[in-house]
Design brief:
The protein is α/β, with parallel strands linked by helices. It has helices at about 5-10, 40-60, 60-65, 70-85, 95-110, 125-140, 155-160, 185-195, 245-250, 285-305, 305-325, 355-365, 385-400, and strands at about 30, 90-95, 120, 145, 170-175, 200-205, 220-225, 240-245, 335, 345-350, 365, 370, 375-380. The protein folds into two domains: about 5-30 and about 305-400, Aspartate Aminotransferase, domain 1 (Alpha-Beta Complex); about 45-300, Type I PLP-dependent aspartate aminotransferase-like (Major domain) (Aspartate Aminotransferase, domain 2), CATH 3.40.640.10. It is an enzyme of class 3 (hydrolase).
C-alpha cells in the first residue's frame, strides 16, 4: 500500500456499518485498547434494562427454571459454535479466567499418569497463567519447565520440542502472545504434545472473537478464555472453559460446588459430579455478566468470524504501514510479527519514551495501553474500530515523539 489515506479503506470495508452499533463510536475518542476491554454495544443497554424489568423483576426466582440455570451451557455452546470451532457440550461459561485456569490445570495434572511431573509454560505467558502454574506446581510437588521466548515473538514447535517428553504432565500456552501478538501454531504444537503423550491447555484470551479457531478439528484438550476483550462482555464478565468431550469423564475439577453436582437441589451429604461439561461449573453463574457477552457473540455470528479476522489483518497491517512510514524514522521499533499470518489482533511499538507518550495520549482521549519494556500496544477490535481511527491515533504518537 502506498496511499496511507484511510478514506478508501473505510469506504471499502464491508463491516464498516457495524461500528455504529457500539457506544462511543460516534465520538472523536480514539480507542486502541479493545484487546483489553471492548466497547459496549448500544443494544446491550436496552437488553440490560429489559432484563431488570422483565426477567429479574418480573419472573424473580422463576428465572432459574426458565433460563438462567442452563445459560452457562447454552451460551457456552454459542461461543463454541461461533468463535471456537467446538461442537455442543464442551464449552461452559463460569468463573473468572484465573479460577478457570486453576480448575482445568489442576484437573489435568491430577489426572496425569505417574512419572509425569512437569508443567511446560513459556516465560512470557500472561502473568496469571504463570502464577497459577507456579502455585499448582508447589501444591502438587511438580516442576515447572520454562520455555524462554523472544519477547517480540512467541512459542513455536522448535522451541518446545526439547522441553516436552515423558515427564510432561501438561503444556499451558497462549494462542496469541499478550505482549507481541505472536500467533502460535495451535494444531502443530498440540500434535507435538500429543506425540509425547501430554495434553495442552490453550489460553484464548487474546484470540477468541478475532482469530478463528478449530478446537475440535485441532484435537485441543482444554482451553480457557476471558470475555471482556474481543467478546465485549464488559468489565469482569465471566470467562469460559472448553473441555474436549473425550476428557470430561476422566477429569475431576478441584472446586466442587453445588452447581456442578449431579443433583444440585438434592443438597445431600456428598459430592457427585454431574455428567458432561456441567461438572466443571462450581457456583452460581453470573447471569447479568453474561448478557452483554451474548449480544457480542450474536454480532460476531452475524458478521462471520472469518470476515472479522480479515478486517483485523487489514487494520493491524495498516497500523504497521503507518508505523513504518511515520514512526520508524523517529526510532520506534515494531515488536510484533511483521507477517500478518503470524500476528493476532494487536501491534506493539517500542520506544524509550512510550510510557510518557501513553500517559499524554490518555489525557487527549487517545487510549492505547503500555507494556514493559517501552511498549505502546495498539489493540484493534475489528467491529468497533475504523481505519480513520488508526490513522488519527498514530498521527498523535508521531506528533508527540516529534516534539
Amino acid at each position: 500500500m502506498t496511499d496511507l489515506n484511510p478514506g478508501p479503506l473505510d469506504a471499502a470495508d464491508p463491516l464498516a456499518a457495524l461500528r455504529d452499533r457500539f457506544v462511543g463510536a460516534d465520538t472523536p475518542l480514539v480507542y486502541f485498547d479493545g484487546n483489553s476491554l471492548g466497547r459496549p454495544l448500544r443494544v446491550t443497554a436496552d437488553h440490560l434494562a429489559d432484563f431488570v424489568r422483565d426477567e429479574w423483576g418480573g419472573r424473580l426466582i422463576r428465572g432459574w427454571d426458565e433460563r438462567w440455570y442452563e445459560l452457562p451451557l447454552t451460551l457456552g455452546d454459542e461461543i463454541g459454535r461461533v468463535c471456537l470451532g467446538a461442537a455442543p457440550g464442551q464449552t461452559f461459561v463460569g468463573d473468572s479466567t484465573t479460577v478457570l485456569l486453576y480448575k482445568l490445570i489442576r484437573a489435568a495434572v491430577d489426572a496425569a499418569p505417574p512419572g509425569r511431573t512437569e508443567i511446560v509454560i513459556d516465560d512470557d505467558n500472561f502473568p496469571t497463567d504463570r502464577y497459577i502454574v507456579e502455585g499448582i506446581a508447589a501444591e502438587r510437588g511438580l516442576t515447572v519447565r520454562w520455555a524462554e521466548v523472544d519477547r517480540a515473538s512467541g512459542v513455536t514447535t522448535e522451541l518446545l520440542a526439547p522441553l516436552v517428553g515423558e515427564q510432561t504432565a501438561l503444556l499451558v500456552l497462549s494462542q496469541v502472545a499478550y505482549r507481541s501478538a505472536h500467533l502460535a501454531d495451535v494444531p502443530a504444537i498440540t500434535r507435538l504434545a500429543h506425540d509425547a503423550g501430554a495434553p495442552v491447555l490453550w489460553d484464548l484470551c487474546h484470540s477468541a472473537g478475532v482469530v478463528p479457531t478449530a478446537l475440535d478439528e485441532w484435537e485441543v484438550d482444554l482451553a480457557v478464555g476471558c470475555t471482556y476483550k474481543y467478546l465485549n462482555g464488559g468489565p469482569g464478565s465471566p470467562a469460559y472453559g472448553y473441555v474436549a468431550e473425550r476428557h470430561q469423564d476422566s477429569l475431576r475439577q478441584p472446586v466442587q460446588g453445588w452447581m456442578g453436582h449431579a443433583d444440585p437441589f438434592l443438597m445431600g451429604p456428598g459430592y457427585t459430579p454431574s455428567a458432561g461439561i456441567r461438572r466443571f461449573i462450581s457456583g452460581t453463574p453470573a447471569v447479568v455478566g453474561m448478557l452483554a457477552l451474548a449480544d457480542m457473540v450474536a454480532l460476531i455470528d452475524e458478521a462471520g468470524v472469518d470476515a472479522v479476522r480479515a478486517k483485523s489483518v487489514a487494520l493491524t497491517s495498516y497500523a504497521v504501514e503507518l508505523a513504518d512510514a511515520w514512526l520508524a524514522p523517529l526510532g520506534v521499533q515494531l515488536t510484533s510479527p511483521r507477517d500478518p499470518a503470524e500476528r493476532g489482533g494487536h501491534v506493539t511499538l517500542t520506544h524509550p519514551r512510550m510510557r510518557e507518550v501513553v500517559a499524554t495520549l490518555w489525557e487527549r482521549d487517545i487510549i492505547p495501553d503500555y507494556r514493559d519494556p517501552d511498549g505502546l500496544r495498539v489493540g484493534l477490535s475489528p467491529l468497533s474500530t475504523s481505519f480513520a481511527e488508526v490513522e488519527s491515533g498514530l498521527a498523535a504518537v508521531r506528533d508527540l515523539l516529534s516534539d
